[in-house]
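U., I forgot to send this yesterday:
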Amino acid sequence: MKISERGKPRTPRGTQMAELPVVLWLLLVCGVIPLMIMATITMRATLLNAAARDAAHAAAKASTFEQSEEGHPSARQLAESTAHATASKFAGVTISQVKTSIMITDADNPSAPSDIRTIKLRPTDVIDTSKYVYSVQVEVSGYVEPLIRFTLPVFGDVPGLTKPMEMKVSGVEMFENTEGLKE
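Result:
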């Protein structure tokens, strides 16, 4: 404890009061704001993932894969519209591309690589549900915005901090009407 000019001991209260704004500012800038940005990016990435899962779920219920029937959209159309509808409900999530594919997996050996086709099955292809599992895979590419965009000329472009973070997520569901994979 220091002694003042009058001979009384000085308390450190005054210096603590003077340092408090600096300490609070450092805690806010170095602690809370980065955590908020990370939490926002994580939440928006989860919402993009939900858009892919919702799109796969909707596409799996379609009666056809490519060609829509009267009053019934195709799996591709359902995946596209559902992904965009889900993402449009939330700010900071933008979809750039929706890619719908057919996954054919060997039921006896599911760890073997799946046959992934981006177009409908040929009319000559035999669909055997006892040997294979037919699924629809929807891959959604999009951008996730940070909560606050910073301008940091020293670091350049940092995804998730100075520019949107580009992400690619996918959802897979078993296709309900396997004969519709030929249409």
